[in-house]
Amino acid sequence: MRLKIDQWEVCRAVEIYLKDEYGFDYNLVDCLDDWPLLSYQEKVQVFKKHKNGKVVKNENGYPVVDHTQTTYKPAHIEWKEFDSMTLYLTPKE
Question: What is residue 3's DSSP assignment?
């Protein structure tokens, strides 16, 4: 199941959460001067290498990821008015 949520729907949900949890009443949708900034972790993959410096490839010809050397770096993006978030959900039976 695909669930697509627009920016204004997420802002309304945050408004409801702020009011219910903290008693803070604020209109996010109409009062945003700037776009919300989303912070997330971006994966920096490192590939395994042979002693001669060439990248190790698997039987299908794809580079092999070295999970012990893979790191994460902080990244940020503006979430603009017409952006949305899509969740792919598997219903529980």
Answer: E
Cβ atoms within 10 Å, residue 5:
12
Q: Is residue 88 part of a domain?
A: no
Give the domain range for residue 40. Answer: 34-83
Four-CA torsion 23, 27, 31, 35, nearest 10 degrees: 90
For the whole model, what pTM was predicted?
Answer: 0.60
Contact 57, 64 (CB under 8 A): yes
What percentage of the chain reaches a pLDDT higher than 90? 57
The amino acid that residue 71 corresponds to is: T
Within this chain, do residues 5 and 21 fall inside the same structural domain, yes or no?
yes
Query: Do both 23 and 8 map to the same domain?
Result: yes
Give me the residues paired with residue 47 across strands: 65
